[in-house]
Amino acid sequence: MEQTPLFGRVALIGMGLIGGSLALALRQHGLVGRLVGADHNPDHVTQALALGLVDEAGTDLGLAVRGCDLVVLATPVGTFAELAATIAPHCMPGAIVSDVGSVKELVLREIAPRLPPGVHLVPAHPIAGTEHSGPAAGFATLFQGRWCILTPAADTDPSAVERVRALWLRVGSMVEVMTAEHHDRVLAITSHLPHLIAYTIVDTAVGLEESTQSEVIKFSASGFRDFTRIAASDPIMWRDIFLNNREAVLEILQRFTEDLTALQRAIRRGEGDTLQEVFTRTRGIRRGIIDAKQA
Amino acid sequence: MEQTPLFGRVALIGMGLIGGSLALALRQHGLVGRLVGADHNPDHVTQALALGLVDEAGTDLGLAVRGCDLVVLATPVGTFAELAATIAPHCMPGAIVSDVGSVKELVLREIAPRLPPGVHLVPAHPIAGTEHSGPAAGFATLFQGRWCILTPAADTDPSAVERVRALWLRVGSMVEVMTAEHHDRVLAITSHLPHLIAYTIVDTAVGLEESTQSEVIKFSASGFRDFTRIAASDPIMWRDIFLNNREAVLEILQRFTEDLTALQRAIRRGEGDTLQEVFTRTRGIRRGIIDAKQA
Questions:
Q1: pTM assigned to the model
Q2: SS3 A215
Q3: Which residues 232-251 in chain A show a CB within 8 A of chain B?
């Protein structure tokens, strides 16, 4: 449905799954006057234009952000420092810079000091995605019914935060505000560790002799399949996440390893009661997710 | 569609998700003359009758198998030894005993020696299921397009194997025959390890302070959610699987732990190339699953 535009001119840097989906959602809901796409990859620019994701697009990031009242970075988080330096001289006074990265302390650390005074930084993380990548993977409803976490610094202009909140609400998300540090610890368990483990188990299968591998594929429906979907996510994006949320990931990984070792011991010693107890209490978390309508 | 019955009288022992689904599928395809359900749990018997899963049902297993040309065990594998002893004196000469258990060396070891001569043991494992349990969780199409693995001993009457194969083909499955030992090694990686890991990570989340737990539920869509679905599977069934496929599970778990430790090291040392390389090659397995139409 058409709504009053929230922003006059918006630049989306990065035309991947999230950037493309956000473009479609912003246009579908009439939230922007003019939408500019930018991507270092000329193929993505061509695809974004061909798919009608944006009104105009190019590979010149400085040009893209000029005159924009909102700039959203939707590239792997490892690019943020360099991107911030590139766009900073071209940002309009009063503009809002946001992002959709999965690690947030890094955003305050790397982007904030590079922006000129009077430009507002409002980091955002929409908890949504699929295992597919690239401009063609985007769809307008990706954010509907999903959470978006904002992690502004304490001294950020509240009206800038409100405008970014309004944007995510209007594309159908629920919005929560928390500190970047807290975000990074929560996501380490809900997202980063699950991805690390999925990548690992699929790689363990890759390491098996070739005859077994074809059987792993054949009989994947028994549990393995779900891990392969997660482990098909964008490699660069995930490399950057692990490099930039190192401490929180290593801490939760340590707890996971302890818990796994305890189960391994129970299996080796044939302690059925321990296994049954763990397998029973994990059902409660699933019920919580179903009750919270996130299943 | 109605087909010629393959069996005159069939007993299904265990009216859970798999037993209930098999009952519905057998009846829908007209594969049995008369279908008898049996379950130690009187509530399951009542439900099975109320849901119309079987023609008759009761808690007396000996009575259930009498006069049957096929008996299928669909209970947790830990019950198999006792069940075999209970039904053996009541099995009709020439009858086929089968099962749907997720561990297969155990079937040959525990069931075969307890059956009278002239009764044929044809172990089966349909690679299908959901995270739901109980008679009401069953549905007739559960096995369609899914693999079913048969693991008969080398000296089993080939015509008995063919009849069980025909049954699974007619309910829509694809059938493969392999040794029980090979089955148990393949399933350790495709099913048992994924479940163990999913149970572990969900239990790691259970161990976090309560405030974080509610956030884990809220933001579960970022990867964790898929693990909770797997970790909501039946606790007794899974306890029995781990206790009875111990060696294969511990061996693959050891490989997994090595691979996880290598990734942990790469994260700690900031080795992005290693991470990217692993995350890239795991995509190949996903493509294989999609190509094999098991996605």
A1: 0.91
A2: helix
A3: 232-233, 235-236, 238-240, 242-243, 246, 249-250
Question: Which residues of A are less than 8 Å from B196 in CB distance?
Answer: 260, 263, 267
Cα separation, A260 vs A266, whole angstroms: 10
Same domain, B284 and B262: yes
Q: A1 lies in a domain?
A: no
Q: How far apart are CA B276 and CA A18, in angstroms?
A: 20
Is the Cβ pair A295, B236 closer than 8 Å?
A: no
Residue B190 has pLDDT above 80, yes or no: yes
Domain range for A151: 7-178
The last residue of one of the domains, among A158, A178, A198, is A178
Mutation choice for B interface testing from A211, A227, A250 by most B CBs within 10 A:
A227
Q: Are residues B174 and B220 in the same domain?
A: no
Residue B43 and residue B168 share a domain: yes
- pLDDT per position as a tens digit, A171-215: 999 999 999 999 999 999 999 999 999 999 999 999 988 778 889
Using the structure block, give the residue that is written with the tokens 């992690």: A151
Q: What is the pLDDT of residues A243-294, one digit of tens each?
A: 999 999 999 999 999 999 999 999 999 999 999 999 999 988 888 888 887 7
> CB-based contacts of B279: which residues, under 8 Å, 6+ apart?
A199, A231, A233, A235, A238, A239
Of A102, A204, A282, the CB nearest to B231: A282
Query: Would the CB atoms of B203 and A282 count as touching at under 8 Å?
Result: yes
